[in-house]
Amino acid sequence: MTPLTATDLISRAEALDAVDPLAHARDRFDLPLGVVYLDGNSLGAKPVTVGPAVADVLDRQWGTDLIASWTRNDWWQAPERFGERIAPMVGAAPGQVVVADSTTVNVFKQAVGGLRLRPGRSRIVADASTFPTNAYVVESAAELMGHTVHWVDPEGLGEVLDDDVALVMMNHVDYRMGTLRDMPALTTQAHACGALVQWDVCHSVGIMPIAFDALGVDLAVGCTYKYLNGGPGAPAFSYVNTQHIPAFAQPLSGWNGHADPFAMETSYRPDEGISRMRVGTPDIVSLLTAEAALEAFNGVDLGLARAKTQSLTELFIAAVDALVPSGVVEIVTPRDPVRRAGQVSVAHPEAGNLVEALARRGVITDFRRPDIVRFGFAPLYVRHGDAVTAALALADALEAVT
Ligand SMILES: *Cc1c(COP(=O)(O)O)cnc(C)c1O
User: Fold this and answer.
1) Which residue among 109, 131, 170, 201 has the greatest number of ligand 1 atoms within 8 angstroms of its CB, and so is best to mutate?
2) What separation in angstroms does the CA of 308 have from each of 231, 314, 381?
3) Is 188 left (phi over 0), alpha (psi -120 to 50) or beta?
4) In the chain, what percentage of residues exceed pLDDT 70?
5) Whose CB has fewer CB within 10 Å in the chain, the N or C terminal residue?
6) What is the mean pLDDT of the chain?
7) What is the model's pLDDT at position 337?
8) What angle do CA 189, 190, 193 make, to 5 degrees?
9) What is the enclosing helix (H) or strand (E) of 191?
């Protein structure tokens, strides 16, 4: 087989972009000219709907309507309303998703609340490859609750489960390697020992269909500023399966989660629904920014988004194989598209310098110490042509740094 040339790759990309059913979605984003943005896995690009929506929040809602906005502009219910818009993207029937607080805070709320649902069990089993904030918070929750944490490679989950495990905490995607975990299989394994399972979908929501209800997932958290493009620091969402909501006691019993917040009662009574996951006053500007951003997904079939992401990452891998001399970099993300999420991670000893050299060539990626360059392929605005441009820039940048 003759190796693919740059010309072959460019024409393959053109052919794929010409028939891409999601190509039109790129116009829903403001993207700087001359930049290939491959860091949407960390901070999604800005949808065009955001500017006018935020101006309205600031000028009309806050500026003119002032405090009446809590009811007139429905600020008070925004966490639930936005949650219901995310719900179909994660396969959740109404009443189970609310947007409030950061992912980190939600991991803590769910860890403690989850442990309280499994009294008499003393272990947490958690994904060793998790993003560190989850790990820090889980350790703290475990200490408070008198539990131990067993860190495990998700591939070996079955071997460490027993009837003393209260909670299994998994990440849908390994944020460094880009490996996609088998949510159905791992959920089934956790349930087989009677544990609850919590999924973190920060790196998968918005790029593939997710089916929490159908799989019987108990708890989940997800980020809105990555592939959902909600803007820097936008609040995260929390999913609690309907069956657990009545007994779910999250530890941050703030007034927004109270059954009757404005009764100003002296003691806490949780809301009977998912609103019990709320804590304090929502960060309205950020929340409404993220809600407006979600319009970029109107009419988008997440099955198509998944197929396009696989196609983009497949082409990028083929282009790196063709354009970079063998042995110079290592693609550490699985080559099997079924086991890959939205990113391709490339290992190289000079990864930090490579990220800078790529940026000078107009390709924005990110660096994870010590040696990983992450190339993220957000299916709504990245084109196949961008994947080839990025591989060409990588080959060129490698010559500059080595
Ligand atoms: C991005 C990400 C976070 C971010 O948490 P913040 O509270 O928003 O800082 C947490 N966990 C995972 C797995 C992530 O991918």
Assistant:
1) 131
2) 23, 10, 11
3) alpha
4) 100
5) N
6) 98
7) 97
8) 90
9) helix 183-192
**N residues, the chain:** 402
Q: At what angle do helices 6-18 and 384-401 cross, to 10 degrees?
A: 150
Q: Is the CB of residue 204 less than 8 Å from the CB of residue 342?
A: yes
Q: Which two three-digit tokens encode residue 14?
A: 């053109």
Cα 118 to ligand 1 centroid, rounded to whole Å: 25
Q: Per-residue confidence at 113, pLDDT binned at 50, 70, 90?
A: very high
Q: What is the mean pLDDT of residues 243-267?
A: 98
Question: What single string gives the DSSP state of each residue in 76-133?
Answer: TTHHHHHHHHHGGGGT--TTSEEE-S-HHHHHHHHHHHHHHTSTT--EEEEETTS-HH
Given a contact cutoff of 8 angstroms between Cβ atoms, the answer to whether 194 and 163 are in contact is yes
Q: Please give the Cα distance from 244 to 117 (Å, whole number).
A: 8
Quickly state the pLDDT bin for 22 (edges 50, 70, 90).
very high
Cα Rg of the chain, angstroms: 22
Residue 1 in this model has a pLDDT that exceeds 80: no
Closest-CA residue, ligand 1 atom 13, reads: 131
Residue 267: the pLDDT is: 97
Query: From the CB of 204, is ligand 1 less than 6 Å away?
Result: no
Ligand 1 atom nearest 103 alpha carbon: 7
**What does residue 238 show for φ and ψ, rounded to 5 degrees?**
-130, 130
